Predict the 3D structure of the following.
Amino acid sequence: MYSHTQRSAASFFLFSLAALIPVGLLLVGRLAGADVGARITLLAAAFVMLVSAFIFSSLTIAVRDGQLSWWFGPGIVKKTVPLSTIVSAEPTATNIVDGSGIHLTGRGWLYRVTGRQAVLVTQQDGKRFLLGTDEPDSLAQVIMTGARKGRRGTDERP
């Protein structure tokens, strides 16, 4: 079993700051001349930024019960794949253009909160994805150990 959470204080700070700017402008009266719709929109945007700060400032990766799972924050955005479908897991580095968060890159879907280290996972069907982590060697080893066990278990079934 493996479970590790990587946190990004910078992401939490930046999302929170982005939320506080419009609230601050409203509180000090800078937007007093703006219509009600604009003020509501700013408050809604601030709320979305605060929720994003909570959700996207941590990434947990777990390997257990024959599954590789990862989720942001409390688990609102969660993915799981059977270890038996994984053919490789390799430590790698991402580049600045890859960014953070959840999005498609040239090497597959990326799930990352901070840093440049990741594990590139390839499944039997050719699908690939990148999991950002500050423990790439350990994570790749745990995934491959579980994948080998998972494939042995499926090979033994009639």
In short: The first strand starts at residue 2 and ends at 7. The two ends are 27 Å apart (CA to CA). The helical segments are 9-27, 36-55, 136-155. The first helix runs from residue 9 to 27.
